[in-house]
Design brief:
175 residues; nine-stranded mixed beta sheet; alpha+beta; endopeptidase fold (from Nostoc punctiforme); 5 helices; globular
Length: 175
């Protein structure tokens, strides 16, 4: 349960948010992201299930290993979905913040288009990849038309372009 200070700060934020804003929900070791769609609701991508396999055989629920020319490569397969939830249910104990992180570099889509893109993915089962298609990728894909994760980029510089200018706009459906 959130304390009254957290609730008050989050309540103020909800009153300030506009349709299509990216909302960041800081957690202990990472941040979770979603799109504000009005009426106190957020649409966001969630990981549901992780499957672990080695050399193509499912072992348990963690990662996938396969041989490559450079040795063993690891891949995590996580089933995910995109859902709409009440802002406060997503916030939990965190103090959320508006984070339209790329507005200074990329023109956002119209609020109507952002919300349409987010809603178009609701309730769809998808592959959720922590490095390629996570909640931040989903939020930036909805707002800007490209999936980009500053959080992942900071964690693993070789997984993504070093700057947003090198990212290629993705016209495919998210996930």
């Amino acid at each position: 349960m959130t304390n009254s200070k957290e609730f008050s700060l989050n309540h103020e934020l909800v009153l300030e948010l506009e349709l299509g804003d990216i909302v960041e929900f800081p957690r202990e070791n990472y941040s979770h992201f979603g799109i504000y769609v009005g009426d106190g609701n957020v649409i966001h991508a969630l990981a549901e299930d992780t499957i672990i396999a080695v050399c193509g055989k499912a072992l348990s629920r963690v990662s996938y290993a396969s041989s490559s020319s450079s040795g063993i490569t690891m891949k995590t397969f996580i089933k995910g979905t995109v859902i709409q939830q009440n802002f406060f249910d997503v916030a939990k104990k965190s103090v959320a913040k508006k984070n339209n992180l790329l507005d200074g570099k990329i023109k956002p889509l119209s609020p109507k288009k952002i919300v349409e893109k987010a809603k178009s993915m609701m309730e769809k089962s998808c592959d959720y990849d922590l490095l390629k298609t996570n909640c931040e990728h989903f939020a930036t894909w909805c707002r800007y038309g490209i999936g980009y994760s500053k959080q992942t980029n900071s964690f693993c510089l070789n997984a993504f372009p070093p700057s947003i200018e090198e990212a290629i706009p993705d016209t495919r459906d998210f996930m």
